[in-house]
Structures are given as structure tokens and as C-alpha cells.
Amino acid sequence: MDVPVGYRNPHKQQGHQRKTQKSRGQEGPTPLFDDTSTGPPPPQGGYGAPPPNDGGVQQFPGQQYLNDPMANMAMQYGANLADQGKDVMEKQIDRFMSVSKLKYYFAVDTTYVAKKLAIVLCPFTHTEWSIRYNQQDEPIAPRYEINAPDLYIPVMGFVTYLLLAGVALGKVDRFTPEELGIQASSALVWLVIEIVAVVLTLYVMNIQSTLRTLDLIAFSGYKYVGMIVCLLAQILVGSMGYWVALLYTSAAIVFFLGRNLKLIILPESHPDHIGHGNKRRMYLLLFIAALQPIFIFWLTRHLSTAIPPKVTKDW
Fold this sequence. Notes:
Number of strands: 0
Strand content: under 5%
Order of helices and strands: HHHHHHHHHHH
Radius of gyration: 41 Å
Helix content: 55-70%
Largest sheet: none
Structural class: mainly alpha
């Protein structure tokens, strides 16, 4: 049968299409997205271009500034200026107070602090009060000599006193930052007045002793431990606990300072404490020891007084 011109067998056309698809399948699956990996190369410079990678070493941001000679010179110049400023500051401080001597009073450790607090709170059982000296006739650091004065406990005691003062003021609805600042200023002012009074007494009575100003500040600062105990007793127990703590801490600080300062103010070479001006030294010793209970009471009594909070009436 003759096939008309232009007529194609559909079966042969389908077979041709299947062979075509099969031949394409042999080349690989049809990609879902266009492959852009072979696109145009990224820009070699300008904004957004990655930094060049020399020799396969990855550079971190800002490395080009470190490799700049001018930047290195500026950093070295700044370091030299900082060192010069530090030296000038230390020289200015040394004019009024030696930094090395100040470091001596903070050369403490945990064992020393624990033992020292036990002696301050209960000095009645301590027997050895002498301070050892090294070969250069200088006192041994506090961490190695329990009887040596330090400034770490007074400073931490002052900070703790302010924290407890804030708690006491909060319990009676009187806490404000200004009120806490007044407490800190008042405590510092009274400490300065105490030190000035003792120094003037030493000068007026013409008493020569090895008691230094920093030693006097350290011994006067131990009363903050008793003040902390009084405030804790007031907060936890009440008014009765405060008075009991005040009596005990007053007796403890007087005994503690009496035994410590006796070896510093009263010379051991004279067994008679009446002659050779020792009578004046004894009065000075009693004056310093008697000041501590007065300041403990003065700086804690107003905090222990319970003032009822203000009650607002709803109309």
C-alpha cells in the first residue's frame, strides 16, 4: 500500500524519541539549576573584592596595617610614651609615699587573713606579740609574720562596712546613693581626724618611736572588723545583739591594740615604765586604744537605730 507523501509512522517517531532520550541519559542526569561555576571571573579589585592571597597564606583583617612600617613606628612610639608616663607617675607618688613600702602592707595571703581576723576578734588567747625582723633590720612581710600590720584587712573591712551600712539603711527605708556616700565620707573623715590627732600628740609630747604613719593607719583600720560584727548583730539579732557585740568588740580591740602597740611605743630596754618618759608613752598608748570603741559606737549607732518607714495614707 502506498504511503502518502508527508505521512510519518507514529511508532517509528516514538522509537526515535526514546532513543534520543536514552542517548541523553547516558551523558548524565538533567541538572535542576544552571551551572554558573564557569561564569565570568570575579573582579580583581575594587569594593567587595577579596584580598589577594600571596603564597597561599591566609591574611587576617588588619594585617596590612601591622605590616606597614609607619604603623609599627607609631605603635612603638606610643609604647615608649606609656612607659615614660608610668615612670613619671611613680616618681610623683614616691615624693609623698613609697610604692615599695605600700606594697609591703598588702603582701598577704589567705592563711594570714584568716589567722589575723581570728586574732582581732579573739585576741585573749594569743600569746606571742613580737614582730620578727630580717637581716636588714626591716619587718618581715605580713604573710610570713602574723603580728605585722597590714592594710588589706582595713581596706576590705571599710568596703564591707559600707555594704552592711547600705543593708541597715534599706531595712529602715532610708537607703539612697547619697546617704551611702555620706556614710563613706564620714568614716574617712573621722579616720583622718584620728590619725592627725595621734600624730600631733606624738609631736607635742616629743615621743620618738618606730611607729610609722602607715602602721598607725593599719592599726586604726582594724576597728572596721568590730564595726562589721556590730552591724551584723543588729541586722540578724536586733538591738540587744548590737549592744552585746559592741561591748565585746570594744574590749577585744582595746586588748589587741594595747598588746601590739606596747612593743612599738614602749621601749623594751627600760624595765621601769615610769621613768625615761615612758609615762607619756603609756598615756599615748591608752589614748590610741580608747579612741577605737568611741569611733565604733559613733559610726554604727545611728545605723542601728530603727526608724519606722513612712506610711502613706490612702485617702
